[in-house]
Design brief:
This protein is of the alpha/beta class. 34% of the residues lie in helices and 21% in strands. Helix 8 links the parallel strand 9 and strand 10. It binds nicotinamide-adenine-dinucleotide (NAD) and zinc ion (ZN). Nicotinamide-adenine-dinucleotide binds next to helix 1 and strand 10.
């Protein structure tokens, strides 16, 4: 097998599950007890902005109580030590990849630690709470969480598609393969000839598109894979 030189890693809520951050579809399609449309759609925000702000305030407040797990650390190590290109794209809105030492993270669904003005669209760092009265310092517009909700366009898609078209190894870690366009990345990578590898606790909607699925907790399977990849590079050097 040809040694890969351009890696594309897609992570989902499963990579943060062992850090104590709840996944999306754990309990019957609810996110922390809420219907997804209620807290993750523009319609939900228009219907009840206070509830939506409170929901993300709670998620944001919990961030400091979670720590990166061995999967986050191994991914950061791979980014630092792999001699080729490693693109890390996450669907997660937490900051655990950054705190795990990842030098570059593309947050395609936004970040809890940022707020965006609904009027001038300026994005700023935000670590406190947001409420209906929180205003943009530039234009006075309302600030909302910098989160991509259902029905909204994910971020950085051009750069993502470019990296997907160029990768020769695609890995999806802890994602259920139910949220598009991310769920379609494996087919794109595979069409371009990349080998595709899935890490999950169970098989998913997109498992049939992968060349290989490694089953088990990401904190165990991902560090083992990173070790393998780096050893294989050392052996070649
Ligand atoms: P998801 O919740 O739909 O699926 C999580 C997947 O991870 C499942 O397939 C599950 O089997 C797997 N998993 C759970 N624990 C695992 C472990 N220890 N090791 C390996 N796999 C494990 O998540 P998704 O596919 O990322 O889609 C959910 C959407 O919700 C995302 O768009 C994201 O923006 C948002 N979300 C983010 C967070 C976060 O930032 N941590 C948490 C919940 C939801
Ligand atoms: Zn503004």
């Amino acid at each position: 097998m040809k040694t890969p030189s351009r890696l594309f890693l897609l992570t989902g809520a499963g990579v943060s599950a062992e850090s104590g951050v709840a996944t999306f579809r754990g309990a019957g399609g609810l996110w922390e007890g809420h219907r997804i449309e209620e807290v993750a759609s523009p319609e939900g925000f228009a219907a009840n902005p206070a509830l939506v702000q409170r929901f993300y305030n709670d998620r944001r407040r919990l961030l400091p109580t979670a720590s990166p797990n061995p999967a986050h650390l191994a991914i950061a190590r791979l980014q630092r030590e792999f001699p080729g290109r490693v693109t890390l794209v996450t669907q997660n809105v937490d900051d655990l990849h950054e705190r795990g030492g990842s030098p570059e993270v593309v947050h395609m669904h936004g970040e809890l630690l940022k707020a965006r003005c609904v009027f001038c669209k300026r994005v700023r760092d935000w670590s406190g709470d947001l409420d209906e009265e929180t205003r943009c310092g530039d234009c006075g517009g309302q600030l909302r969480p910098h989160i991509v909700w259902f029905g909204e366009m994910p971020l950085a898609l051009d750069a993502i598609f470019e990296a997907l078209g160029a990768c020769d190894l695609f890995a999806a870690i802890g994602t259920s393969g139910q949220v598009y366009p991310a769920a379609g990345f494996v087919e794109m990578a595979s069409r371009h000839g990349a080998r595709c590898l899935e890490f999950n606790l169970e098989s998913t909607a997109t498992s049939p598109h992968f060349d290989e699925s490694r089953t088990g907790p990401a904190s165990r399977t991902v560090p083992a894979w990173v070790e393998e990849l780096l050893e294989c590079q050392d052996a070649e050097a």
